[in-house]
Amino acid sequence: MAKTCQVLGTHVSFGNSVSHSHRKTRRRFQPNLQRKRYWVPSLNRFIALQVSAKGIKTIDKRGIESIVAQLRARGELSI
């Protein structure tokens, strides 16, 4: 599975590591992804999502039902 948040779409970004002498080498910025299970009452089952820490806060704020509807509309969740 790609390193992408299923809720927000956060993905790996790239930049430079800059040393004291200002030599630059390429590096990757990884999102803080967690595999989390949520109980969805309308489906009467658990679903497992790969979400970033900010995605978890978004789910807490908007509710899992809203997020599931959004994922179904995008075609990421086929239940």
TrEMBL record:
Record's keyword terms, sorted: Ribonucleoprotein, Ribosomal protein
One Pfam family it belongs to: Ribosomal_L28
GO biological process per UniProt: translation
Gene3D superfamilies with a match to the protein in the record: Ribosomal protein L28/L24
UniProt GO MF annotations: structural constituent of ribosome
Cellular component terms per the entry's GO annotation: ribonucleoprotein complex; ribosome
PANTHER family: 39S RIBOSOMAL PROTEIN L28, MITOCHONDRIAL, LARGE RIBOSOMAL SUBUNIT PROTEIN BL28M
Family indicated by similarity: Belongs to the bacterial ribosomal protein bL28 family.
Protein name per the record: Large ribosomal subunit protein bL28
Upper lineage: Bacteria, Bacillati, Actinomycetota, Actinomycetes, Bifidobacteriales
